[in-house]
Every structure is written in C-alpha cells, then in structure tokens.
Amino acid sequence: MCLISRHLRRLTAALATATALTVSACGGGGGADDGTTTLTLLSWNNEETMTPVLEAFERAHPDVRVEASYSPPVAEYIQALQTRVLSGTAPDVFLIAAENKTNLIQGGHVLDLAGEDFLANVPEFNQRTYGADGAVYGLSLGSWGAGILYNEDLLAEVGAEAPPETWEGFLDLCAELKDAGITPYLEPVDAMPGVLSAFLGAHNASIGHTMDDEIFSGASTFEEQWTPSLEEYHRLYDEGLVTRDTVGLTGDQVDAEFANGRVAMMIAGPWAVPGLREAAPELNFRMVPVPGVDGGEPYLAGAANPGYAINPDSDHIEAAKTFLSYLASPEGIEVLQASEGSITVTSDFDPPLDEALDPIIEDVRAGNVYLPQIGWQRAEDVLNLEAVAQIQRMVQGEISPREVAQALDDKLASS
Questions:
Q1: 236-271: per-residue pLDDT in tens?
Q2: Residues 300, 305, 306: CA angle, nearest 5 degrees
Q3: Residue 152: CB atoms within 10 Å
Q4: CB 288 within 8 A of CB 163
Q5: Exposed / middle / buried, residue 213 (Cβ in 10 Å: 0-12, 13-18, 19+)
C-alpha cells in the first residue's frame, strides 16, 4: 500500500504526470473497432506496480482493455483527480482515499457498491471506511499499519532487544543510542507523523472511539483532544533526541539512512520492507507498534487502503464492476498483493508477508489502526494541509503543541 507517499509535488507536475503517462496496460489502442471495451483508470500506484495487475486482468478478460494514467499520492493524486472530476473528464475507475472521500461522496462522484458480490469477502472495517449510511463507495482490499521499524543490530549495541512498549522507555532508549554515537530515530515531516497518529489512535480507542465525533460535533476541540499527544510527540525534538532539521528530509532520504545502518529506528509501513530488503539484504530489522503513552497500549498509525471507486457517470459501469470483481478474486488479489507488497484483508486469500511485519499483522488485519484523515468528518484535505504545516512549525521550535491544535480548531471553524 502506498497510502501515503510522502513527497508533495506541484500541481503542474501532477497534471503532467497524469497526461504524459497515459498508456494502455498492454500497449496499443483498443475500442469499439475491435470489439473491446476501453476502461479508463487513474492510479496512484505507479506504472511498474500496476502493469502486472492490468496485464493479468486483460488476459482473464480479453474483451476489456484498461487505459491507465498515473499520478503519485497523496496531494498530487487528490488534486489531479479533483481537476478531472470538476472538468467532467473523470476516469471510469479511480481511488477514494482518506483525504478526498467526503468530497467525492457528498458530490455524488462515486457509485454505491453495496451488495456487489465482490464485497462479500471484504471486512466491515474496510467497507465502513469508505462508506456512509449503508452505502459502500470503494473496494478496499487491504489495510496498512505504520510502526517503529528498528535495526536489531544497532539496538543490541546498547543492550536493547526491541523498542520498549512505553513512550518513556522509548525516549530513554533514544537517549542511550545518542550517547553511544548512534542516530536514534528519524522521520520525514512532510505528511501526518505516524507516531502522532498512533498516539491519537490509542487515545481515541481509550474513550470508545468517540474523539472525532466529539470534535466535529462541537462537543470538544482539537485543543482538548490533541494537545497531550502533540506534547508527547514534541519531546523527540524538544529534548534534542531528533534533529529539528528532519523537516527538510524526504521519506526516501530517511529510508536510505536506515538501509545504510546510520539510524537505529524510523517510522514505516509495509511498503518500506521490499525496498529495504533489496537495498540491504543483510540488514536485520523488525517492526513493532508505536509505544504507549501514560500507561496506554502501543498502537499503530494506519487505515484501510484506498478503495477502488467507480464513476457513476461512466459509460462502462459493467466493465468497471468486472475489473473490481477481478481485483477482489483470489487470482486478482494474489497478483495485486505480489506487486504492492500490501497486507490484504480478504477472507479467501492469505497473503505471503515478510516476517519483519509479524508483530503488526494481527492488529492491521483486525483494523486496530488509526489515521486522523479517516476520522475527520469534513474538510479532510484542508485540515490535513494545515496540520502538516503547523506540525512542521512546531518541530522547528516556532510554535507550541497547543498552538498546533488551536490552529486546527481555527481552520475547522472557517471550513
């Protein structure tokens, strides 16, 4: 799952990508002249990832050709899709995600899939994530969880077998690693921080999963609900355990530092593992949930994977349903999982997963994960941009954790 590519590019680049990379899955044209139906798809998985999937689908369904275009997640994809939806050129199939689900659902831009056979083996958690009032608007075939990925050999240098399950213990471990001349932890801050999302998820679970309902109903505020978690997260920087220059790091740079053995721990999801195995075959690493705060349980940032949605104005709705049916079949999901490396959740397919993920798989497949943008009930795109911008300012020492939360309250009030 690439729920969350961490590189924000300009809209012009996104639109150029979506235009320049428009290709047929198997090359060539296809359409009414040769008896095939041409189905258009906007994917945020790249061409390399999707080509095996689309080729396998076309072999199984030679009467349907998929013409795919590509735009990278998250902000670039959301903007590219929005531009096409508003211009009346939306593809037949596209992705509904945390950051655009409200706009797509409320705007009537996604077809209700409730009752379709291809949903039969999809867990309620994934259906509910992209649903409303009994409707289901996206076929979500997997879930992801982001936790602490740690270098077993570097932790062993300070006598640790794994990161502690408590946040205090984690901070102490970071201090020990730093004293030993080892960079303890790094993360990019160009998206919602995974550690913060996990803290908020644990808090939300502890109060019966009512946090977002209370904030968006006006019964509570971001300031009340988020400030304690922001304060704990900020300790990484306030106590000098992580450089404030991390704001300038990309996800690829952090991955490279970890692969080269120059950092002991980072936040990561399943998508990071294949690249690390390829880049550093001898590296010993494992992933665990983010440690708990103030006696709370360890938790994972995460969500149901974005769902495949159908444009209700498509001229090829039945072909689109055929495509989704293939993706949800054991044959289709096997190809998709092999290409993505994702934690799939359908009941009729058991995905082969890297052993480094063993400590998180059960929670991910059970839906014990949290991502703020999924919980937000309106203005997800605006609030996400505001949150990332204000968190970056906090990391750089410009504002306090409470001021981050207050800024979110102000943004919600004006949205």
A1: 999 999 999 889 898 899 999 999 999 999 999 998
A2: 135
A3: 15
A4: yes
A5: middle
